[in-house]
UniProtKB/TrEMBL annotation:
Residue ranges occupied by any V(D)J recombination-activating protein 1 DNA-binding domain in the UniProt entry: 1-23
Domain V(D)J recombination-activating protein 1 ZnC2 positions: 234-296
Top-rank taxon: Eukaryota
Taxonomic source organism: Cobitis bilineata
Gene that this sequence comes from: RAG1
Name of the featured protein: RAG-1
GO cellular component: DNA recombinase complex; endodeoxyribonuclease complex; nucleus
Length: 301
């Protein structure tokens, strides 16, 4: 091992560092920086225009989403290999067909103001965006059903929840939240259309990711989907019932608020194609008021 060119030794050394893993996306991710050995980055990277009032370089710090997912998978390497063994799967044939379900969470962290305020002027509220790897399954060649090889036992524990982005922002500040989480969403969207090639248990394997936004509380769902706040007469984040209707009918509801539909309603709100009065317009869009920017799945946590 000793008599090797310097760059090979350097690379071997690098691989011993925590959090350093080589990986590849096929096809390469669109709209994502190509330097893959990145650590913690400025939360506004990927956003071109700056956010006013606050020194932009202090406002958020985050990991690049794919780098964080790679790190999380490498942490679970032993669990993945164990799961393959327990299911009696030959790990040398299981190199593709892995599916990873990711739960996303985001919530305000309340007042984090400095007591003696000598630092830069930043908002005194903070928001944390994080994710949890909920399960990993594999569909073996020729098999119909996928086999789950890893299931998170404590999906709501802080120990399984990995912070992706920490930001100084009030969770009600729609514009700043959009500016910071917009690039995160762009990265996630790119990952949905690609697969990750990563060495697990000494063999290169390919993973696909599915994301579920089930870790948001009601306030955050309303914020992210551009719905009116909790005092609205439209009480539900999943359907269009008003307070009066909901009190009459507690049973028959259908999920009608998809992300796509919210976007269409926002367009109607913005353009008012039928030249309606404010009240008529509001009745038409059923409480969609600000621009929704994050895709939340209508699922219960």
């Amino acid at each position: 091992q000793i008599f090797q060119p310097l760059h090979t030794l350097r690379n071997a050394e690098k691989e011993l560092l925590p959090g350093y893993h080589q990986f590849e996306w096929q096809p390469a991710l669109k709209n994502v920086s190509s330097s893959w050995d990145v650590g913690i980055i400025d939360g506004l990277s990927g956003w071109t225009s700056s956010v006013d009032d606050v020194p932009a370089d202090t406002i958020a710090r985050r990991f690049r989403y794919d780098v964080a997912l790679v790190s999380a998978l490498k942490d679970l390497e032993e669990d993945i290999m164990e799961g393959l063994r327990e299911r009696g799967l030959d790990d040398s044939t299981c190199t593709s067909g892995f599916t990873v379900a990711v739960k996303e969470s985001c919530d305000g962290m309340g007042d984090v103001s400095e007591k003696h305020g000598s630092g830069p002027a930043v908002p005194e509220k903070a928001v944390r965006f994080s994710f949890t790897i909920m399960s990993i399954s594999i569909r073996a060649d020729g098999e119909e059903d996928a086999v789950t090889i890893f299931q998170e036992q404590k999906p709501n524990s802080e120990l399984s929840c990995r912070p992706l982005c920490l930001m100084f922002v009030d969770e009600s500040d729609h514009e700043t939240l959009t500016a910071i989480l917009g690039p995160v969403v762009a990265e996630r969207k790119a990952m949905l259309e690609s697969r990750l090639i990563l060495s697990v248990g000494g063999l290169l394997r390919s993973f696909r990711f599915f994301f579920r936004g089930t870790g948001y509380d009601e306030k955050m769902v309303r914020e992210m989907e551009g719905l009116e706040a909790s005092g609205s007469m439209y009480v539900c984040t999943l359907c269009d019932s008003t307070r009066a209707e909901a009190s009459q009918n507690m049973v028959l509801h259908s999920i009608t608020r998809s992300h796509g539909e919210n976007l269409e309603r926002y367009e109607i709100w913005r353009t008012n194609p039928f030249s309606e009065s404010a009240d008529e317009l509001r009745d038409r869009v059923k409480g969609v008021s600000a621009k929704p920017f994050m895709e939340t799945q209508p699922t219960l946590d």
